[in-house]
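Subject: design request, 261 residues
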């Protein structure tokens, strides 16, 4: 019994460590790639931001360790205890359910993010935790996971909890995590990667890209969403798209250190 318990604890620790490494390497690869791309597409954009980038990488790697623990525990439980509603047999659910499950995960994540994000902008919580993320002025591709450990924890627990509530195929889950990673990086990159017809078109009215999140970093009290503009529109916190012509730097200086509501 004792040996079994020790074996399980060791396996959980190994799983948490492996997940931390995966999340950390995934962050370095994704942010590194888009930072490299930024250097090609917008040469000199990050030239004066080296000290800030150093802080963004430090906070992000710390977040990777925080993300790795719940992910590692759930991965261990899935693999050895049959926990979670993650399935690997594609016939277990109808094929149409695969895209539906991806959408449900993104919608749930977006809802969680919107409301916790608004809460993180309450002055006291902002000063203690969320100010770390907003210290990136303007953010760079390295700021994707630049969170105070407390904020990182609020984000780290959500998908590991969701896999107990909503069934999802393992590949669909990988797609959700890939979308999460890429959007997290590109939304902070300091320029718009999506073509104008998407950003300014019908899709852009409902989807969040860098132009939308840039405005949050410039003006603070608006545009709290993650993937969709649904909650921002419904709660009248959507103030439209931001710009990348230096307006954000000037604007953010004039905003108080308090996160507002
Ligand atoms: Zn941000
Ligand atoms: Zn914020």
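Subject: RE: design request

Done. Sequence follows.
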């Amino acid at each position: 019994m004792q040996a079994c318990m020790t074996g399980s604890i060791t396996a959980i620790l190994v799983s948490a460590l492996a997940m931390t490494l995966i999340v950390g390497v995934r962050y370095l690869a994704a942010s590194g790639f888009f930072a490299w791309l930024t250097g090609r597409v917008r040469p000199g954009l990050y030239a004066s931001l080296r000290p800030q980038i150093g802080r963004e990488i430090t906070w992000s790697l710390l977040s990777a360790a925080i993300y790795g623990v719940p992910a590692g525990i759930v991965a261990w439980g899935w693999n050895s205890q049959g926990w979670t509603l993650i399935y690997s047999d594609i016939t277990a659910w109808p094929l149409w359910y695969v895209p539906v499950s991806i959408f449900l995960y993104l919608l749930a994540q977006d809802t969680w993010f919107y409301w916790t994000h608004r809460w993180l902008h309450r002055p006291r919580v902002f000063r203690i935790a969320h100010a770390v993320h907003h210290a990136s002025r303007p953010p760079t591709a390295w700021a994707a996971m630049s969170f105070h450990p407390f904020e990182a924890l609020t984000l780290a627990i959500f998908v590991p909890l969701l896999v107990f509530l909503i069934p999802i195929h393992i590949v669909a889950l990988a797609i959700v995590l890939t979308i999460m990673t890429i959007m997290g990086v590109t939304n902070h990159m300091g320029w718009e990667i999506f073509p104008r017809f998407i950003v300014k078109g019908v899709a852009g009215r409902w989807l969040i890209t860098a132009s939308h999140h840039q405005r949050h970093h410039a003006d603070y009290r608006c545009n709290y969403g993650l993937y969709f503009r649904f909650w921002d529109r419904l709660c009248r916190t959507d103030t439209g798209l931001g710009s990348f012509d230096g307006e954000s730097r000037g604007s953010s200086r004039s905003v108080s250190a308090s996160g507002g509501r």
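Confidence is low (pLDDT under 50) at residues 247-261.
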